[in-house]
Amino acid sequence: MAEILIGEDDADVRKWLGIALETEGYGVRLTCDGEEALAAVRERRPDLLILDVMMPKMSGLDVCRTARAADASLPIMMLTARNKDEDIVEGLGCGADEYVTKPFSMKVLFARIAAMLRKRDAIGVASAFPVGAHFVDGKTMRVMGSGGFSEPLALREYELLKLLYERRGEVLQRDWLLNRLWGVTFYGNTRTLDQHIALIRRKLGDDADRIETVRNVGYRLRTQADQNS
């Protein structure tokens, strides 16, 4: 039984979400502020961490950032009323794998949670591959450059980069990528894909231009032959 840790300061939302997840068969731990949530993560690693952004003592963003730095493979979902593009960019930039805005459909939330846990289980057989001078390791969930420099990858960032690598040289359409990675029930802001690409490029450093934007279509991972032409 997967265990989900929830950081939520609203008592009614916290209780309601806990009951709903337990009804779905998950083990649940509830915390009411950021410091308590981070302490609970350190005490016993959950299978999934769900965080509100605005919490007392320590924000959900700071909890996410700290937890991600310590554990690159921990699935993290932000569940918040903050829904502007800059909020989503900040949440994903802190290392969240999913950013779900309130109000939300419980049916969709359950589907997102199940998908995140399935992908967590698949990480054990994740592959490693090169992107230019960088090396992406699915087991450690990191992208590594020369001199031992490395950056942690969120689960969704790894999946997106791996998909681009598997079909390198091809132009992958935005809708296809969204449906493949987020599912046909994805109702979020379509800027989510662009934001993940931007985060990946930042971590690839000098190899950022390997990911080509094809205007009004999608993205392509350039091959070595493309770079040399």
What does it look like?
The longest helix is centred in the middle third of the chain and has 17 residues, at 106-122. With 229 residues, the chain is an alpha/beta fold. It has helices spanning 11-23, 34-43, 60-70, 85-93, 106-122, 155-166, 174-182, 191-204, 224-228, and strands at residues 3-7, 27-31, 48-51, 76-80, 98-101, 128-131, 134-137, 142-144, 150-152, 172-173, 211-214, 218-221. The strands form three sheets. Strands 2-1-3-4-5 form a five-stranded parallel beta sheet, sandwiched between helices. α2 (34-43) packs parallel to α3 (60-70) and α4 packs parallel to α8. A hairpin with a 2-residue loop joins β6 (128-131) and β7.
**Radius of gyration computed on alpha carbons:** 18 Å
Please indicate the percent range of residues in DSSP E strands (runs of 2 or more). Answer: 15-25%
User: What is the H/E order?
Assistant: EHEHEHEHEHEEEEHEHHEEH
Q: Could you give the order of strands across the largest sheet?
A: 2-1-3-4-5
**Tally of alpha and pi helices:** 9
Keywords, separated by commas or semicolons:
229 residues, alpha/beta, four-stranded antiparallel sheet, 12 strands, 21% strand
